[in-house]
What does this fold into?
Amino acid sequence: MRIALGLPGDATDDHLRYARQLGCEGVVLPTPRRLDRPGATTWAHEDLAEIKAWVEGHGLRLEALQRTPNAWIDPIRLNLPDAERALEDLATTVRNVGRAGIPALAYNWRPNQLYRTGTKPGRGGAEVTHFDPAHPKAAELPLSHGRAYTADDLWASYERFARAIVPVAEEAGVRLALHPDDPPGPSVGGVARIFSSFEGFERASRIVDSPAWGLLFCTGCWAEMGGTEYVLRGIRHFGARGQIVYVHFRDVIAEGGCFEECFIGEGPMDVVEVMRALKEVGFDGAIIDDHAPKMVGDEEGWHPRARAYQTGYLAGLLRALA
Ligand SMILES: [Mn+2]
It folds into this structure.
């Protein structure tokens, strides 16, 4: 296991130096702006190879790309008329990611944005996000994609995706890492959420039998689903099968379907047991922190001060269990 740093999409040389200064061996990049080409519907091999060389030039490993642009995958997730074209483009991107030697590509199956009902003061006044399903912003959310999409709709689109893309990823040497719905629940904006439970992931794991299929295991989302025991259950099942590609280490303070985010180690999750479980199942990939609270002086959107604290906390945990 190793601690990496999740960087913003517009990461610069300074961000890579910062990761090195924190003692990280690698980084994760979400939809890197460096890969943007106006009008493009795929990531080009030469751009991917260039970004990997850039990261490695700083003495770091590029652990994963965290997601492709939503506009590329929404036609697939919602099974829109251009889904077939979008699947062909995604297959091209996956092949290019593999050719560039980038080992993992994450994705999720929620066409809606990461969804919260607001922010509030957390520990010492640090700004944290919260979610309350009874809040008018959640309870009265209009249809986000023009009509309701049922769980059956989402499963049909997911199965089509898995059958088309997982074999391509396996051949390309890329592992696909599926992140849970956040927040978990039956639906958001009329779109069903099918990766909000252990059973959802277990069902998905049986569609295509391939080492390329796996999880971006987000302890925060698993804790939202059912606390420490649920996190441990997920790790012990999927981790033992080698199906955890990499980890988001995060915690929430949850009660009655509501939750607020918090610092690692502040919330109810037994972080030592979670890290120990990852070790015990033989997980040997990257762990990054996730959704850092906004601390004093954290003007940059990805909250580098809180990330430094959390990254150091994770490194210490890892050292203690070594
Ligand atoms: Mn996450």
The mean pLDDT is 96. The longest helix spans residues 151-172. The two ends are 10 Å apart (CA to CA). The chain has ten helices and 14 strands.
